[in-house]
Amino acid sequence: MPPIVDEDRCTGVGACAEICPTEVIDLETKSEGKTIAVIARPEDCTECEQCVNVCPEDAISME
User: Fold this and answer.
1) How far apart are CA 34 and CA 63, in angstroms?
2) Among 14, 16, 21, 25, which residue is least crowded by beta carbons within 10 Å?
3) Nearest to 12 by CA among 32, 23, 31, 26
4) Which of 31, 30, 36, 33 is nearest to 5 (CA)?
5) Over the stretch 22-49, which tens digit does the pLDDT of each residue have?
6) Is the pLDDT of residue 63 over 90?
7) Does domain 3-57 have CATH number 3.30.70.20?
8) Contact between 21 and 47 (Cβ < 8 Å)
9) Where residue 4 falls among pLDDT bands split at 50, 70, 90?
């Protein structure tokens, strides 16, 4: 199962997108101007959990 991003906690730092070996995470700017991480290609996720470990806001989890 791919990671889940808590949009309320995510501050759009982008460390998760940078570390993801399969490039499944993109940064997206919402209509209110807030940038957040999104799991754009969940089918390509290898569940390595690097994104979970690097997130400074603890905004990503594996469920």
Assistant:
1) 25
2) 21
3) 26
4) 36
5) 999 999 999 889 999 999 999 999 999 9
6) no
7) yes
8) no
9) very high
